[in-house]
Amino acid sequence: MSTFADTTFTSPERIRNFCIIAHIDHGKSTLADRVLQLTGVLGERGYRDQYLDRMDLERERGITIKSQNVRLPWRLDNEDYVLHLIDTPGHVDFTYEVSRSLAACEGAILLVDAAQGIEAQTLANLYLAMEHELEIIPVLNKIDLPAAEPDRYAAELAHIIGCDESDVLRVSAKSGEGVAEVLDAMVLNVPAPQGDAEAPARAMIFDSVYDTYRGVVTYIRVVDGKITPRERIRMMSTGATHELLEVGIISPDQKACKGLGVGEVGYLITGVKDVRQSRVGDTVTFEKKGAEQPLGGYRDPVPMVYSGLFPMEGSDYPVLRDALQKLQLNDAALTYEPETSGALGFGFRCGFLGLLHLEITRARLEREFGLNLISTAPNVVYGVTLEDGTDVEVTNPSDWPEGKPREIREPIAKCTVIAPSEFVGAIMELCQSRRGRMDGMDYLSESRVELRYTMPLAEIVFDFFDYLKSRTRGYASMDYEESGMQASDLVKVDILLQGEAVDAFSAIVHKDDAYSYGTKMAGKLRELIPRQQFEVPIQAAVGSRIIARETVRAMRKDVLAKCYGGDISRKRKLLEKQKEGKKKMKTVGRVEVPQEAFVAALSTEETNKDDKSDKDKKGKK
């Protein structure tokens, strides 16, 4: 039972494919660890915490970024079963990973912390699972915590799903209590995968990774027929054909096998190095006597936030291009296209699902490919209608059309917030200050409330979540989804250095926020730009109108030092001569903005003054 390498073509009636839906820190990775140990796949020597979180970033931050799959043996009533667990992320920015996992499953464990209750992002993923018609197994975790209230939250889950309170299983993933009952419930309640074993082979690609030595490794779920090695396969969307070098399963590491049958989950290796030939959502079939109709794939993810990524060293541009290609294979929600900036040189305009997605992508590029990057201020996609009726899509402030547009549209989002009822007033105040419109409010229980708002996406994606957490002492949770476009009063704010616009610092903001953005950025740059031999004006402008100004004072040599006496006219003559020189230098001199200034000014965080002063105080103590 410890190895599956020789076990092939398991009967579909004995297979159960499932995933775990949970919020960050509700114990999903711990439950996966217990399941791996309980099924005997993972011995004591190979065990480590968060086993399925393979990335250093995941382990450091305590979050799941990449979905992972593993094959597990289970025995119930003297019958052997095969369980395929597909681990999923919990953060809203990785919803695309979740949707891919759900498409490959028939069941889902809804895991909820017995001390906190269901969170907004978990609720969103639950509705996603219900849309896929998955069988939901409700489970309350951390029942051994002193603050746990299993009866209260079991009633809440039963109310949301529409089941009896007795159907909600109670476990402690840390101690292992109740985990075996969850696996039994999985076997009894989740339907077996459906498919035609005699039909031409069809398998769905739900993930891919790039291996330096083996090329592209493609993860598949077989729907019809069987996939065997040494056959020639065809990718149905691209038409590319390859010889299948290896077929295998993951239990918990890669193991080659003789083939995969209906409902089985595993991996393919073709030795292909071109990352574009293995698209997530594609259908794999055989080249000869293959299937005619592809499977219903995934909808392509729509980027919500755009940001420019530029290498610190211009020579790293080809390295960044190759890195983005390889990362896109592993993260299909990432989009990119080449971009040139007058201030930052050559780089890429990248599309992300949210700010955490941007942060994680940048961290992975820097760690896995050894790059030093500058990311520009993130912005959403705007629609602009010009006076002649032409529609333009703007993803970058530098693409903003000249002249006064007839109409400007910005994306809006449906936002759901779940929080204790005592914070309703603070949440309403925050949402209204972000141009939000209330759609409704429901009480999930006596003490927990769900608020629904429609608000501009640009107001949500930057720092809304941070403010929400601080106003609710960390108890609120939030989820959002895009909901079309609406006309709005937006302007482009340009930052001018000595009268020249620097495209990297431009931003598109609401008319009411233009002054605060202009003064903040001008003040930031005044501290970051080193003093020159001449005075440097820093201006914020909307069109031709200056709305804010700061000045970097010139460095001055004391030309009067040698005048220890004599007539005042001598001193005046020297000062006039210096003034003329400064004037001439100002006309020919250029303001050099150091890379550190770009990094600091374009970082989405506030300046670190407060943190620094706190550290200084601690040091003095």
Automatic annotation (TrEMBL):
PANTHER family: TRANSLATION FACTOR GUF1 HOMOLOG, CHLOROPLASTIC (PTHR43512:SF4), TRANSLATION FACTOR GUF1-RELATED (PTHR43512). Residues 606-621 have a biased composition (Basic and acidic residues). InterPro entries: EF-4, EFG_III/V, EFG_V-like, EFTu-like_2, G_TR_CS, LepA_C_sf, LepA_CTD, LepA_IV. The gene is lepA. Belongs to the GTP-binding elongation factor family. LepA subfamily. Residues 13-194 form the Tr-type G domain. Keywords: Cell membrane, GTP-binding, Hydrolase, Membrane, Nucleotide-binding, Protein biosynthesis. It is an enzyme of class 3 (hydrolase). Its main location: membrane. GO terms for biological process: positive regulation of translation. It catalyses: GTP + H2O = GDP + phosphate + H(+). It is found in: Cell membrane. GO terms for molecular function: GTP binding; GTPase activity; ribosome binding; translation elongation factor activity. One of its GO terms (cellular component) is plasma membrane. The lineage of its organism: Bacteria, Bacillati, Actinomycetota, Actinomycetes, Actinomycetes incertae sedis. It is a peripheral membrane protein. This is Elongation factor 4.
